[in-house]
Design brief:
TIM Barrel, 19 strands, 10 helices, binds iron/sulfur cluster, 2 domains
């Protein structure tokens, strides 16, 4: 089989700006186009540039865009999270074109680089947000950054709210690239065994080495990042073939997808074989598998089926909520 070719015709639908948050907020929770959750809870935002993923980070682009929102109240919430910098190798002299105002120059120069500033902002007014929504939701916690970089006190408050909000029937998704930092901050003794089941701790991986390290961290009981509750993995953006067989039995859910750039343009190549291989592992292990997006014909598309089978399978608790309250595309 030639890499990059679909194994069969896959019906697809155009994807919305899945990461982007709509302007609509309900009791502090935001409607979202991310298809596997129904609300986002942006209680913390921000990240740093330490990991390779920072280069093409969707959250960074989104925070920069929102910091330039026409509504100053919205723009203010994103202030200071991102900045544009002239790279050291830049040879363009923009001064004659844009004058002495450096920020204006950097803003317009095409060789500039968008960076996280390293500021991690907490929004105290949103700490209780999930308690104000009585209809059960699948809530993605802090999607615009890495929660692992927040301080321990903030993470404790977030977990306390989750603990209380579980009574309302919500399911919570957390995703990190630094499980070794995040998990020790989660106040586990505060939970009883049943409540662990509603906080889904996931790791995001683009390559095999990421998967081995991060999935191993949450699944291996001897690791400081070990999470005794429900575990999931997001292979997005997937940049190479990933063999998930080592940890698939310890994971409750696998989400997979290609890289998507601004304007839903496809990024680096994504091969259908990679999806077929992960699907096979998930089916064999009896685990749900969700193919979020693929690149096809110069566009990023959301497939609905592959070889006649649905490609969006979620764990029962999450799937039940998704069926009742389908996600709303952002404005
Ligand atoms: S960890 Fe997440 S938020 Fe931070 S740079 Fe990487 S992709 Fe972006």
């Amino acid at each position: 089989m030639r890499p990059g070719r679909p194994t069969c015709r896959a019906p697809v639908v155009s994807a919305g700006e899945s990461g982007s948050e709509g302007r609509d907020a309900v009791n502090g929770l935001h409607k979202t186009g991310i298809p596997f959750c129904t609300r986002t809870w942006p209680v913390v935002r921000g990240c740093d540039n330490a990991l390779r993923c920072a280069r093409n980070c969707w959250a960074k682009r989104d925070c920069w865009r929102m910091a330039h929102h026409s509504d100053p109240k919205i723009a203010e919430q994103f202030e200071g999270l991102t900045e544009k910098q002239c790279p050291p190798y830049c040879t363009e002299d923009c001064r004659p074109f844009y004058g002495a105002d450096a920020s204006k120059r950097i803003d317009r120069c095409r060789s500039n680089r968008l960076m996280w500033t390293g500021l991690i902002r907490t929004y105290p007014e949103l700490l209780d947000a999930p308690l104000g929504t009585r209809k059960p939701q699948v809530i993605f916690v802090a999607p615009q950054g890495d929660l692992a970089l927040a301080d321990g006190a903030t993470v404790s408050k977030i977990v306390r709210t989750i603990y209380m909000a579980i009574e309302l029937g919500h399911e919570f998704l957390m995703l990190t690239k630094r499980p070794g930092l995040l998990v020790p901050m989660l106040p586990r003794p505060a939970f009883d065994a049943g409540r662990f089941d509603h906080l889904w701790l996931g790791v995001s991986c683009s390559r095999q080495a990421d998967f081995d390290e991060r999935a191993g961290a949450i699944c291996d009981p001897s690791s400081p990042g070990y999470w005794p509750g429900r575990r999931w993995v997001s292979l997005e953006p997937q940049l190479e073939a990933i063999d998930v067989s080592r940890w698939i039995g310890s994971l409750s859910w696998t989400v997979q997808g290609c890289e998507s750039l601004a304007g839903r343009r496809p990024g680096r190549p994504f091969h259908w074989d990679w999806a077929a291989a992960v699907r096979r592992e998930c089916i064999e292990a009896g685990r749900p598998w969700w193919l979020k997006q693929v690149s096809q014909g110069g566009r990023v598309l959301e497939p609905v089926s592959m070889c006649g089978r649905l490609v969006r399978d979620a764990p029962e608790a999450i799937g039940a909520i998704l069926q009742k309250c389908s996600p709303v595309a952002p404005e």
